[in-house]
Amino acid sequence: MTKKPARTHTGAVAMPSKEQVLDFIAKSGQKVGKREIARAFGLKGPNRITLKHMLAEMAEEGLIDGERKSIRRRGHLPPVAVVEIVAQDGEGDLIARPAVWERDDGEPPRILVLPGQGANAPSQFGVGDRLLARIEHLGRADLLGYRYEARPIKLLPRDRRRQLGIFRTRDGKGGVIAPINRKELREWRVLPGDEGGAADGDLVRYEMGRAPHGSLPVARIAESLGNPDDQRKVSLIAVHAHGLPDEFSARALAELDHLPPLVTSGRTDLRSLPLVTIDPVDARDHDDAVHAAADADTRNPGGFLVTVAIADVAHYVRFGTALDREAATRGNSIYFPDRVVPMLPERISNDLCSLREAEERPCLAVRIVFDANGAKRGQQFVRGIMRSAAKLTYQEAQDAIDGKPSDRAAPLLEPVLKPLWAAYRALARARDERQPLDLDLPERKILLDATGQVERVVVPPRLEAHRLIEEFMIQANVAAAEVLEKKHAPVVYRVHDAPSREKLAALRDFLQTLDLKLAASGIKPGHFNGILARAKTLPVSELVNEVVLRAQAQAMYAIENCGHFGLNLRRYAHFTSPIRRYADLLVHRALIRACRLGDGGLADEETGAHLAETAQAISDAERRAMAAERETADRLIARFLAERVGATFEGRVSGVTRSGLFVRLRDTGADGFVPVATLGQEYFRHDEEHHALVGERSGAGYQLGDTVSVRLVEAIPTAGALRFEVLSDGKPLRRLAKGRLRTPRRPRRPGRR
């Protein structure tokens, strides 16, 4: 689609307006980038530079989103899109949502499916169907919440991966399928004969059946996937719901018998260096080891030489092998409370590439020289052979520094641990001067008993030993990015963009309700740190940390660098965990090739467009893993609380929508929902600006951050869903609305066209 360039009275090509650019993006039927926009409007030379600045402004204003080579209008659907039918209302109308929707664009819009003709009539479709449809934007959402209307073009093959539920028998004849998605809490009938051999409690893949006219929808079980309770693996639900590959192919496993042997020649010998691993007490693999010593160079008084050695996964996993293809597909290891879905087989991750105590292992190491104030003075990467001097836990290392060394740590205190801490404190001074984003959010950990059930939920202490390893790893990651850039080698950066203008505006609105002010422009991590420091004196300090976190952009992998806002670093690349992150393996290969460190370097086929596609794929895999881990934690905690229905808990309002409140429990961190209809007898208005629900008559209500007492009304473990009833009275909030609350209008149905 090409537009005729507009010209000025002098004959020069005129710059398009922002509205024209948005219209072109919305109507384009192809992938749109800066090049396509410039070609469409006939922009050349200096006008391309002007376009670049215009697109940057539009991104800051929240009008568009995307990387330089792929731009889209933010929060909008294209004229033709794939939608998925998710519900049917009481009058038979089908409700759909986009099949693809970016998380940062907020909640996906509700779409009303309009009548089609013949095979495309809505009566031919059902919940779970995917449609290719023509989309019409309605402007603002109507009173029933519809922002778009969809007219079907054709029915697409069902996405079988997402049709999952838990089968429950009913008197030995048929049964129901219970939901695993907390947003769609309804059951589907299974008629006798359609059970597909599934037993009570099995996770099943099902297909929607065609019930007689006027009857409730029915489902037919296509496959039983096992019982999460019997296997003590609640994560089985998330594995199948997200299509996570949890078994290695026979070809990949066969390659384990033909891995390259370890040869010490050509490697730097680090076996005499007392490198140590410091990990959680339950760590199964150890892919990083550290060492620090005073710099012997008299030109660097008080300085340090820090060595970070990382398992040499690239020696064993070569490009083009089945092992490499599976690692790239998985993208990362996924850690559930009840099991791990690894990126690489245990033969590699827990044996050959685990830096075990007193065993020789291949490694890729970086030596970094710092001055007495933690400023870097030099760095060098080597490919070595090492032998870990000790396997320590975080608590064990911390206890030794605090004067309570264990028998294993005592001999290491003076020669190893104290130099590590001395180097860390120098690096900490430099870190504090750099002012990275300093969020303070408790990280809860679910502990299971011998039967796989939740025993308790704890918040592990945050030790100085954790910060030490974290800072050493950050420095190694920075060194990797810097060396690759200096050698003009391909880099898979870990990028974290600055918060969008739209998110900052919403954050300022919220902070103003707490009398906290955020700078109007030029936002840096230090500005957020000032807010967080002032919030420590408030009872909602934890909530402020969470809201600031929500305002941040999502970190991702890319071959084009925009820096790392959260760490306040210009360049950053993941290097330190190649056992569990494919991005780190790519960085290892790039360093081996750029620094001429032997075999297993980045292949020509991995560079260029292929590397960009891989970076996007592993970013998607990371988001998928995070969702699976979060959902599994929700299911485990819901199961833990299911026996306490009717009990009272203390919590805090963690989210406010027009349909109700989200409440987070203080002890477990569990999130549950309070429907607005249960708040009281009056009508509650949603004050979006102040994150509050305000009673129309009384002016009292509930606001983000409020402490409340709630009663657990319902727990659905398979979906990880909790429903609460608020026991606390609402507080006076009329002053927030400033007279803007109006009498509610009665919803009406959208007109047909």
What layout of secondary structure does this protein have?
Blueprint: H1 18-27, H2 34-40, H3 46-60, E1 64-67, E2 70-73, E3 80-88, E4 94-98, E5 110-113, E6 130-137, E7 146-156, E8 164-169, E9 175-178, E10 188-190, E11 203-208, E12 218-224, H4 235-241, H5 250-255, E13 268-269, E14 276-279, E15 288-294, E16 304-311, H6 322-330, E17 334-335, E18 340-341, H7 346-352, E19 360-370, E20 376-387, E21 390-393, H8 394-401, H9 413-434, E22 445-448, E23 454-458, H10 464-486, E24 493-495, H11 501-512, H12 525-535, H13 541-551, E25 556-558, H14 582-594, H15 609-641, E26 648-657, E27 660-665, E28 671-675, E29 684-687, E30 692-695, E31 700-703, E32 707-716, E33 721-726, E34 731-732, H16 734-737
Parallel strand pairs: 5-7, 10-12, 13-20, 14-21
Antiparallel strand pairs: 1-2, 3-4, 3-6, 4-5, 6-7, 8-9, 8-11, 9-10, 11-12, 15-16, 16-19, 17-18, 19-20, 22-23, 24-25, 26-27, 26-32, 27-28, 29-30, 30-31, 31-34, 32-33
Polypeptide structure, described:
The chain contains 16 helices and 34 strands. It has 753 residues and is α+β, with helices and mostly antiparallel strands. The strands form ten sheets. Strands 3-4-5-7-6 form a five-stranded mixed β-barrel. Helix 4 (235-241) packs antiparallel against helix 15 (609-641) and helix 9 (413-434) packs across helix 10. The relative contact order is 0.08.
- Number of E strands: 34
Straight-line distance between termini = 29 Å
Helix content: 25-40%
Q: What structural class do you assign from the helix and strand content?
A: alpha+beta
The fraction of residues in strands falls at 25-35%
Calculate Rg over CA atoms.
28 Å
How do the strands of the widest beta sheet line up side by side? 3-4-5-7-6
